[in-house]
Structures are given as structure tokens and as C-alpha cells.
Amino acid sequence: MGALKKLLMVVGVVIVLFVATSFFIPKDYSVERTINIDAQPSEIYPYVVDLKEWKKWGVWFKRDPDMKLDYSGPDRAIGMRSEWLSETEGNGEMEITQLEHNRRVMYRLYFPDFDMGSSGVVEIEPTENGSLVTWRDEGSVDNNPINKYFALMMDSMIGPDFEMGLENLKILAENAG
What we know:
Pfam families: Polyketide_cyc2
Largest sheet: 7 strands, antiparallel
Keywords: Membrane, Transmembrane, Transmembrane helix
CATH architecture: 2-Layer Sandwich
Number of strands: 7
Transmembrane segments: 7-25
CATH class: Alpha Beta
Protein name: Polyketide cyclase
Radius of gyration: 20 Å
InterPro entries: Polyketide_cyclase/dehydratase (IPR019587), START-like_dom_sf (IPR023393)
Helix content: 25-40%
Shape: elongated
CATH superfamily: START domain
């Protein structure tokens, strides 16, 4: 019985430390990746402003070719929405919230299964040799300790998807011209 008591005591201390440590973890997260693309902003922007085009470069669509996609709202404009259902990639919705022609597409994401949302932007900046494209997504979680640890790992969880998506976008834009 002494060993069981010690084990329960250790488990209890670990749980208390897990919860106590979470108070020092920020609720906010930000994931950002950047790539140089040898194409003009006007050659890149159509792939970003049209949510139907995201399936050509977004990694989630490539990982689940059976993903069910629906689009609504005005095409390539503020209010354009995409909704998806996927057994492997999860369910979600995205809506364009702000646009700056050939420069910036801002969006809102929502994942109903987790009741979690974020906002993001794809920015296209002209350079001497083409364009610098930055993809950033930001959000905040509640005070649930598990969610705060989840936010802490967000960059390592979706950052590689952003990198691969930007690489796909680079290939599309550079080969389109």
C-alpha cells in the first residue's frame, strides 16, 4: 500500500505542477512563415483572394482529397466563405474579411469541433526579384490549461503546413507565367 500512496502522491504533484505552470503560459499564439516567390504580386494574388484556388496549394486539401468543400458569398471579395468537412483534417470555415488588391487578404477561421477561431493574413510585398509572401495566423485560447499548452505548440503544429503551402504557392505562381 505504501508504493501505491507514493505513486498517487507523485501523480497528484505532476497534475498540480501542470495546472500551476499553465497560469504562466500566454493565451495568445501567432504562427508566421515567409517565402520569396519569383513572380509579381498580380500573379500571386489570384491564388490567395479566391478561396477556391486554395485547394491547389493548401496542404490540408492535398492530404484529404475526399474533403467536402462548399463555397458561398461573392467570389474573390470580402464575404467569400469556404466550409469544409474532413474526417482526417477536421471541419472548419473560412471567410475573407479584408482585402487590399494585389497586397493582402485577411481572413477569419473557425473550427466548430473545437469551438476555436483565429484570424489570419496573407501579405504580398513586391521586391526587386518578385515578391515576399508572408502568411500569418493569430488566435487566443481560454484559460483551460490543456488549451494553453495547445496554443504553446501551435507554431510547431501548423507552421510546417504553412511552409509547405507557401512552397506549393511558389511553384504555382512561378510556373503560371
